[in-house]
Amino acid sequence: MASNELPTFVFSDYVKFFGAGALAATSTHAAATPIDVVKTRIQVDDALKGYNMVRAARQIVSKEGTAALLTGFGPTAMGYLAQGGAKFAGYEFFKKQYISLAGGIDKAVDRRTAIYLGASATAEFFADILLCPLEATRIRLVSQRGYASGLTTGFARMAREEGLRGSTPGSSPCCSSRCPSPWASSPCTRPSTR
Description:
Subcellular location: Mitochondrion inner membrane
CATH superfamily: Mitochondrial carrier domain
Mean pLDDT: 89
CATH class: Mainly Alpha
Organism: Bionectria ochroleuca
Keywords: Membrane, Mitochondrion, Mitochondrion inner membrane, Repeat, Transmembrane, Transmembrane helix, Transport
InterPro entries: MCP_dom_sf, MCP_transmembrane, SLC25A3/Pic2/Mir1-like
Number of helices: 9
CATH architecture: Alpha/alpha barrel
Pfam families: Mito_carr
């Protein structure tokens, strides 16, 4: 392939992009589940207000056991599997579309930063739509003890009691805080991979 030709990605390429993003996002976010549980509990549990992270974690473990630190692990893992995969595959998809819209590789070179930013933000937006219902489930599991036993029962309860609106109340803050993030990282990392 000449350097002035668009890559001809096939479905298996997008599967690889999805897999890479899913692995990266799932592993990092799932590993941080205990930190997120403690942080959320400090915010919503009056008994933990004013505690630091270590003291709050000890209190949670002493009252509920070590497993309490993994509350919400299922929605976190599944949410970031979908979000990370869609973001990585979506970035490559939208980048190719925006290069084509610019008139091809030769014309897109002068607009590459805008193309990288646009592809990143577009991919992040759609990926976050996949993430929001699972994040809403996770928040309920962590902040409302006894809400449900896990991902499936929590998601089903939220859907039954609140319908679609139950999974979307945090979508605006989620997108407004997450969509700008690739704008900063993409222009910084992209030149190093050329």
